[in-house]
Amino acid sequence: MPGLENVKIQDLTPIQISDPVMHMKRLPLLAIACTCVIVLLAVVGSVIPQASLTDDVWYMDRMDVLRNDGDLNVFYTRAAWVDEGGIPYSHAHAQEYPPLAVAMFALVRLLTSSAEGFSVVMIAVMIAHYAALVFVTGRILAERSLPYTRLWFFVLPGLMYFTLWRYDVIPALWTTVAIGAVFAGVFGVAFLALVVGTLYKVYPGIFLLPLFMLVGSRVLSGTQRASLAKWLSWSALITLVVCGGFALFAGFADMIAPLAFHMMRDVERGSLPSALLALLPMAYQDGARPFVIAAMLLCQFVPFVVLTAKARVRTKTEFVHACLFILIPLTVFARFFSPQWILWITPLVLLVANRRALLALLAFDLLIYLQFPVLFTIDPFHISYDLVTILRTVVLLWIWHGSARAILSFSQGHIFALRVFRRIKCLKAKM
Fold first, then answer.
1. Nearest CA among 302, 311, 314 for reference residue 403
2. pTM of the model
3. Helix 383-407 vs helix 316-332: angle between axes, to the nearest 10 degrees?
4. Are 235 and 204 in contact (CB under 8 A)?
5. Per residue in 32-57, pLDDT tens?
6. Among candidates 128, 126, 110, which has minimal Cα distance to 72?
7. pLDDT tens digits, residue range 79-120?
8. Is 180 left (phi over 0), alpha (psi -120 to 50) or beta?
9. Is the CB of residue 212 less than 8 Å from the CB of residue 229?
10. CA–CA separation, 182 and 318 (whole Å)
11. DSSP calls for 80-118
């Protein structure tokens, strides 16, 4: 359609570099530099005595701004079945994590039975995956001729903090491997990587939808179809072995307990529904609660319908935009707040964003770290906590808007309305 390409490309195409060879030479050094920074942060956060930073004026411990090993302690507890000879996912050893995560916790607990040793090993595992994530992202940036300086986003405080004290860097790595496979044209490997990532954390599974759409839009040769069938078979086999193995001992009903756990989670501080309800007068909060939750749930899943009905996923870049198009609403409008979502979003944005989206990503990371752990350490019930939630939401929706424009089909009416709006804006500027 005449004029449509100009409307989209001028705002969405990242600035490219002219020397990808030099980029590849600098990539190992930059990956090592990022890894050294996060190792230093891990050492500082682990070595400083926690009691020395305690202050009764603060809501919690000041050490939380550097160390937050609460989730690591949960992982250690969930692996207690190893020492007790129990069965994971059974009633005695309930789990809220997918099978490969449970297996990883068990393996680390086999290596060390102490909580301190468990934390050290887990942090080392996360740093190794972090280094791999930086390197894989850098390789994709080089192949796309994008500036290697984007990798400095990996030393932002929010991303490093939740790399160390959560395990979301692992599914983030597998998702990025899948995207690299898509750009390399090896779609079967992309399917396999997303399946493995889903067995660590459920969210990579949603990217199978845009991947199916991308593959379905292409005419594959006989060799490509055979390769795709092979990797799909491996993906199905791995899923069957991992999930079937656990289900064989624990039962299918207990295997789906992680999904049931997250479905039953209530509205949490830091989520958008919580912030909206907090801004209402106390007398109206209980009455508005079910309507706010229903509206948020609708906003989470409408993008999936729009993606299948109105979006196009014909190019590899559009695939990444489609992933962001369904991922961002799923996190923004959720009832619960998991600040480690920064690890889900950042690698995808770095691969397709323009300068304005990168600035928004920078703001998002700083806001995440400001909200948790800083403001949460001071007082999570202060109104500033809710205001940061709303500001963080606006920033993320700005990034989402760019991905929406990249994949949604604009009708002639939309283009005409956009031109009229711009003409009115110009006239106002001249008045």
1. 311
2. 0.86
3. 150
4. no
5. 889 999 999 888 877 765 544 344 43
6. 126
7. 999 998 888 887 767 888 999 999 999 999 999 999 999 999
8. alpha
9. no
10. 11
11. HHHHHT--TTSGGG---S-HHHHHHHHHHHHH--SHHHH
